[in-house]
Amino acid sequence: AQKITQTQPGMFVQEKEAVTLDCTYDTSDQSYGLFWYKQPSSGEMIFLIYQGSYDEQNATEGRYSLNFQKARKSANLVISASQLWDSAMYFCAMRDPYNQGGKLIFGQGTELSVKP
Amino acid sequence: GAVVSQHPSWVICKSGTSVKIECRSLDFQATTMFWYRQFPKQSLMLMATSNEGSKATYEQGVEKDKFLINHASLTLSTLTVTSAHPEDSSFYICSARVLATSVYRYNEQFFGPGTRLTVL
Predict the structure, then answer these.
(1) pLDDT band at residue A99, thresholds of 50, 70 and 90?
(2) Do A102 and B106 touch (CB under 8 A)?
(3) Beta carbons of B97 and A95 less than 8 Å apart
């Protein structure tokens, strides 16, 4: 069965510094997708970045980049130049193969706090 | 990105009553919608997958008779919590799946803003 693990319940980072949020996954499938979402205190889930299992290059979206190491089954999120409004919960998720409807499996989440 | 709405955003009800939560895709059609439940400081737990025109697929451990899901159209799915009890108090979030097109590069799921249910 697919599984996503985020081992950092909470992280602190100084404003303007970079931070890495860890995510490891477990799957026996060759085709899968990995996502990162941000959830501020208001509760909405905000899509940040996506990495496909066959993508050769690491995904980047503005200040967000995904450090994809397929052999190690890790998909860490890197936020560069942290801003105060980056403080939120961050969830790593994996999409099941299409034969299971494309549902997402989420990790436990990491609460990021950006200090001024 | 695509917009998904949920109504109501919060609801307080008495124990034993039923509550209906609506999830709408506003600017796209969604053949598949998902319902999640989230307790404070915890992750999202998938409750069920809702496909338009067919019965929902529930995750293991989710009571089908308690959490009724209806996906009557390509833009609307509803979750009804029947005979709600205090332990059903939670944050319920829906998402709608967008198929990959030239606009959306991959099969993203767009989330609604969530509904906070409190059962007294």
Answers:
(1) low
(2) no
(3) no
